[in-house]
Amino acid sequence: MAVKIRLQRHGKKNFAFFHIVVADSRAPRDGRYIEQLGSYNPNTNPATINLNFERALAWIKVGAEPTLTARRILSYEGVLLRHHLDGGVAKGALTQEVADKKWNDWKAGRDAKIEAKKTGLKNADIEARKAAKAEEAKVNEARAEAIAKKAAELAAAEAAAKAAEATAEEAPAEEAPAAEEA
Fold first, then answer.
1. Residue 181 is inside which H or E element, if any?
2. How far apart are the C-alpha atoms of 150 and 80, rounded to whole Å?
3. CB atoms within 10 A of CB 80
4. CB contact at 8 A, 19 and 36
């Protein structure tokens, strides 16, 4: 019986998430499995991976073959590196202390990369919001200027109309006394 570590699809259309399972290779994709090792959600940025590290390492050690995507996830989580280092310790190529040091260095570097990505995304979001706010303020200022200009034009037109009306009222008043003299 060939045992595979693979993904089992869940979720809805265009919004899938996956369970990482150990299953017989003959079982259907979403069918029966031997053990669930964790979950993988590619919808978040960065992708969320919850994995039972010890159980995944145990299944790799007994010969379970990961699929390509599962292999990438296990590599990203460090299961394959740990398996490789444990193999080196078993062969006597390196000591357990050296293997643990290499593992801890890799883990610290990976965690730093993930944290840098999260802070980069957060800073990019903040900058995008600031730019949008500045653009909105610029548009509002342009609108306010247009409204003020239109209001000034209307006020000037009203003043001109009142002045014309005042001159029109004064002109007939002046013409009436002239008619009495004649």
1. helix 96-181
2. 71
3. 18
4. yes
Per-residue pLDDT tens for 161-175? 888 888 887 766 555
Q: Distance between CA atoms of 75 and 67, rounded to whole angstroms?
A: 12
Please give the single-letter amino acid code of residue 8.
Answer: Q
Containing 21, the helix (H) or strand (E) segment is: strand 15-24
Q: Residue 39 has what pLDDT?
A: 95
Q: What is the pLDDT of residues 131-171, one digit of tens each?
A: 999 999 999 999 999 999 998 888 888 888 888 888 887 76
Residues 49, 179: Cα–Cα separation, whole Å? 101
Query: What is residue 1's predicted lDDT score, i.e. its pLDDT?
Result: 62
DSSP 53-109: HHHHHHHHHTTPEE-HHHHHHHHHHTHHHHHHHHHHHHHTSS-HHHHHHHHHHHHHH
d(CA 145, CA 157): 18
CA distances from residue 2 to 22, 79, 95, 156 in whole angstroms, order as listed: 10, 20, 32, 89
Q: What span, in angstroms and rounded, lies between the C-alpha atoms of 129 and 138?
A: 14
Residues paired with 35 in a beta bridge: 22
DSSP 8-class letter at 42: T
Q: Tokens representing 103?
A: 């593992």
